[in-house]
Amino acid sequence: MTDAAAPLLNPGTAWFLLVAFSGLWIALGLWWGRRGAGDADDYLLAGRNIGLALSTATLMASWVTGNTTLAAPEVGYTLGLWGMLGYSLAGLGLFLFAPLAVRIKRLMPRARTSGDFVRLRYGRLCWGIFLVITMAYTLGFLITQGMGAGLVLQALSGFDYRLGMVAVIAVSTTYTLVGGMRAVVGTDFIQSLLIMALLALVAVLGYSRFSVDAVYTALASDHPSRLNLLLPTGLLFAWNTGLFSMGEVFHNNIWWSRVFASRSSVVFRSFVLGGLAWTAVPIVTGAIALMALAQQLEIPQVNMVFPIVTAQLLGSGGAAVVFVIIFASLTSTLDSLLAASADLIAEDVVAHWLLPKATDAQIRQAARLVVVGLGLLTIALSWQYLTSMYQLLLFTGALVASTIWPIAMGLYWPQANRHGASAAMVAGSITGLLTYWLIAPYCAALVSAAVSAVVMGLSSHMRPERFDWRLLAER
Predict the structure, then answer these.
(1) DSSP character for 64?
(2) For residue 357, which phi and psi values (nearest 5 degrees)?
(3) Among the four residues 28, 193, 329, 375, which has the most C-beta atoms within 10 Å?
(4) What is the gyration radius of the CA atoms in the chain, in angstroms?
């Protein structure tokens, strides 16, 4: 890993920001956590009573990951306009899930996880395959956030990579452990406001110094391929990103838990508004990357385009702003991953597999243990910086894209075949991974989704089933 020549942020300032925001998130987690009634539904789903503002904020903050603030500028820097615009298509996942969320809420009023749907709709074999895919994706996603935490503190302050990684994971684990979903939703609200306000500040200050016309002229002269909207790699990247985001959102318990935790009246609007708010983030960070290309700024490490450029453009104040943005984005995603994964494992693995007669208190305790276990596992897996954050996510995209059509068809089409759903996930995952290694990572999710759709559609057409929707009301 290549280090920057000198820290972008004074170590004392970095320590102050780290301690101040860590203390704030933990204090808020304790405060919100103590407001709950203490049962499993309260810990896992915040009492199923989240309103529009909190629901929208937690969706947006959970989707603004370390990858959005670090990897989106990376692809903007390497692919140009299509990197910026293509990454913003990840917002499609939230938009397209909005009508599905309404149907999920109506069909499964007492469910807790995405695994509940797969188990009741397709049976235990498909459920097992789904859980393997979900946990593989979750671990990959957790690793990218851990690596992002180490990278940002190292680049901004000169701290050791492991120090930043451990600090951010420990903070997220602590307040998620003590406060559950209430702490996650509450801190997400504050984090989303911080992220949006500070990103707007960066964009305004940056383009007040270098106009859009000046950036365009420089790119057209020195990097014309970055402005080519017919660039084949860019088009593949855009399609792959859209499908990847659908696979991420459709299958992952982060988003299903938000459905179950929110009031029925706000579910649709919160997903649409959350998607709109999120789309602005990769556009702003990608635009900063285009500015770096136009100004021919030295970028020693492509993962760190956004912090390095912002610090060079705006000085030490810019480095502090970036620190807060990325710290908030990392913690808001880590807390959501930890809470949703704890929900999934406690409900699906413990309550429906290991301890079928588990009490409400045992489920809550299992969830708390999972939060701690996943936090420690993330630290262990992120201990060494291994690869590009986005390359790792593209690898998991080959898996999650295979779940799009089994989920969507299973929610609307009573003829959807349970064996076809299992075969679609397996076939899509295998072909997606082969595509990742043999053709190009940008194509993996596209191929996985296409193969899964064909297998699911043909099997359900040839051997249709007649599913009774009332079965989904069971838990």
Answers:
(1) S
(2) -105, 25
(3) 329
(4) 22
